[in-house]
Design brief:
Catalytic activity: 4-imidazolone-5-propanoate + H2O = N-formimidoyl-L-glutamate
Function: Catalyzes the hydrolytic cleavage of the carbon-nitrogen bond in imidazolone-5-propanoate to yield N-formimidoyl-L-glutamate. It is the third step in the universal histidine degradation pathway.
Strand content: 15-25%
Number of domains: 2
Structural class: alpha/beta
Pfam families: Amidohydro_1
Subcellular location: Cytoplasm
Largest sheet: 8 strands, parallel
CATH topology of the largest domain: TIM Barrel
GO cellular component, one term: cytoplasm
CATH architecture of the largest domain: Alpha-Beta Barrel
Distance between the termini: 15 Å
Bound molecules: N-(iminomethyl)-L-glutamic acid, fe (iii) ion
Length: about 400
């Protein structure tokens, strides 16, 4: 029995929601955990009745309890860093310009190809530690900094390795189509053929990679190549996610809807017609305000997605180039201040809808009976401090799968 909770705060539900009238707030709360699940949640008084006398009690001493954050879009595994490219951007160079000169994603590809497995794993484990300290219990993680058979598999192997060794839970995505590798420069179609022929069958056989993602973007993988890759992926049984309409209004959001994608991400330039198609298809809009912030670009139109009836999730897009952060609380702040979201909407975006964006809303993303005991505790006067006192990590304790992973 966990007591000493001044306030438990959560959305409620087992799937993505498009409204924010699903919040539950319990003052002076207690949570009964059995094994890895929430067995009861309510006021301390309610739970205090009919409890076995020998129940183990944990006193949090006055903290706020929320469901662990879910981060549904991360590029977890990569080598090196791009801090000097970052400084070049501060001196005026553009992201697309740097990429065109062989920097950007391609520079991380070189560094990831050169890194050995243990170095990649050690770095990924440090990142997972940081995520956990920031209250993140579950993430989606993609490959995509290899762009060849050997390195893409190396990235997936590293994910297996660190996932087995760390409490943060992970779902894997194959993103061989993250960029056109130098070997196929100017021939994205040939690279897609290579991915379809050589990599998809091998990755499908691994059995623990449910998703395929693609960077559908002007001068990267345009609509026809994207469709061809995603159709091949679907034929292998993969579910679809997409980086769509990030830098240009190419129409990726429409393709995501057409493909029945679980989630379309970025979607800064999505048209209203495609937003409506996404709503119809049940494709979640995963918005990445950290990327807009870090690239000083336009923010996605959260309100238009809401009007279209699309469920909105938020993610860090953790990666070395366009958004180098793990803080979902900071994404809430950016979404509230720059995308016009309410606190409640942003909270749902990093919990329930984020879980739905990785098909885990039935078990993750809220504090409800039967769901995973994945609980982050905030050392703050109220849950509002997540955004109101911004730029601060308020998470002091984290329970993952019923055990304290941070205390
Ligand atoms: O989601 N847009 C493409 N991919 C990443 C950026 C990766 C990088 O710059 O290394 C993104 O923003
Ligand atoms: Fe990304």
């Amino acid at each position: 029995l966990i007591e000493g909770i001044t306030e438990a705060y959560t959305a409620t539900g087992n799937g993505a929601v498009t409204r924010s009238d699903v919040m539950l707030r319990i003052e002076d709360a207690a949570i009964l955990v059995e094994d890895d699940r929430i067995a009861r949640i309510g006021t301390r008084e309610e739970l205090g009745r009919d409890l076995p006398a020998d129940v183990a009690r944990v006193d949090m001493g006055g903290k706020v309890a929320i469901p662990c954050f879910v981060d549904p879009h991360t590029h977890l595994v990569w080598g090196g860093d791009r801090s000097d490219e970052f400084n070049r951007r501060l001196h005026g160079a553009g992201y697309v310009e740097i990429a065109a000169a062989g920097g950007g994603i391609k520079s991380t590809v070189r560094q990831t190809r050169a890194a050995d497995r243990d170095a990649l794993a050690a770095k990924a484990l440090r990142t997972l530690d940081t995520m956990l300290l920031h209250g993140v219990g579950t993430i989606e993680a993609k490959s995509g900094y290899g762009l060849d058979l050997e390195t893409e598999i190396k990235q997936l192997d590293v994910m297996d390795q660190v996932s087995a060794a760390h409490p943060v839970e992970m779902v894997q995505t194959f993103m061989g189509a993250h960029e056109v590798p130098p070997e196929y420069a100017g021939r994205p179609g040939d690279y897609v053929d290579y991915l379809n022929r050589e990599l998809l069958p091998i990755v499908a056989k691994r059995g623990n990679v449910p998703y395929v993602d693609i960077f559908c973007e002007k001068n990267v993988f345009e609509l026809d190549d994207s469709r061809r890759h995603l159709e091949a992926a679907a034929a292998h049984g993969f579910k679809i996610r997409m980086h769509a309409d990030e830098l240009h209004p190419l129409g990726g959001a429409g393709l995501a809807a057409e493909m029945g994608a679980v989630s379309a991400d970025h979607i800064v330039w999505a048209s209203e017609e495609h937003m409506a198609a996404m709503a119809e298809a049940g494709t979640i809009a995963t918005l990445l305000p950290g990327t807009s912030f870090f690239l000083r670009g336009r923010y996605a139109d959260a309100d238009a997605f809401k009007q279209a009836g699309c469920a909105v999730a938020l993610s860090t897009d953790y990666n070395p180039g366009s958004s180098h952060t793990v803080s979902q609380a900071l994404m809430m702040a950016l979404a509230c201040m720059n995308m016009g979201m309410t606190f409640e909407e942003s909270f749902i975006g990093v919990t329930l809808n984020a879980a739905a964006a990785i098909d885990k809303a039935a078990t993750h993303g809220t504090l409800e009976v039967g769901k995973k005991a994945d609980i982050a505790f905030l050392d703050a006067p109220s849950v509002m401090y997540l955004v109101y006192y911004w730029g601060i990590n308020h998470v002091s304790d984290v329970m993952k799968d019923g055990n304290f992973a941070v205390r």
